[in-house]
Design goal:
Blueprint (H helix, E strand, L loop, with lengths): L17 E5 L5 E5 L8 E5 L2 E4 H18 L6 E3 L4 E4 L11 E2 L5 E6 L2 E6 L10 E2 L30 H21 L1
């Protein structure tokens, strides 16, 4: 088990179920501080509640910043048809949960709050993951580093995997055809 990465000023984890540590996937992540039973509500995803127009403006601004700096991208989470949560605040440790194509957690909404819950029993010391559920609009901008056996290579919702696999197969076929012509 690795040593916890130092917290940034103002950063904390307000859940007894997990703590912030260095992650092999991307910078930092959340790790179970004890065994977590399946179905447990682990941590709330918190931040500023935004209308959709402001959410889109911030999202695109953050994407532009990430392209220039390589910094993490957007922490905006859809709450409902009218509002999103901008979790890009130091007191939102849940923003550090990394994506995986084989998640052990899921995000769900309950009473206008976003929660992360355990999909299965999670062992003490295990990193917490959920599938970010991105669509395929800009999938190439979001390579997946989860390393799971189920990994599809990009951060995408499981419902998009069949279409993504077809796109990737077509891309490979085109690439091989070009190589043979050279």
């Amino acid at each position: 088990m690795s040593n916890p990465e130092p917290l940034l000023e103002g950063e904390r984890c307000d859940s007894a179920w997990c703590e912030i540590r260095r992650s092999g996937i991307h910078g930092r992540g959340l790790f179970a501080t004890r065994d977590i039973p399946k179905g447990t509500c682990i941590i709330e995803y918190i931040g500023e509640k935004l209308g959709k127009e402001e959410s889109n403006r911030r999202g695109w601004e953050r994407i532009d910043f990430a392209k220039k700096t390589g910094d993490a991208a957007v922490y905006i989470f859809t709450l409902n048809d009218d509002f999103d949560i901008d979790g890009n605040v130091p007191w939102n440790a849940a923003r550090l949960i990394n994506h995986s194509c084989a998640p052990n957690c899921e995000a769900y909404i309950d009473n206008d709050a976003i929660w992360i819950g355990a999909l299965r029993k999670i062992k003490k010391g295990e990193e917490l993951y959920y599938n970010y559920g991105f669509d395929l609009e800009s999938y190439e901008d979001h390579p997946c580093l989860c390393g799971s056996k189920k990994c599809v290579g990009y951060i995408a919702g499981e419902e998009f995997w069949p279409k993504l696999k077809k796109k990737l197969a077509a891309k490979t076929k085109t690439s091989k055809a070009r190589s043979r012509k050279s």
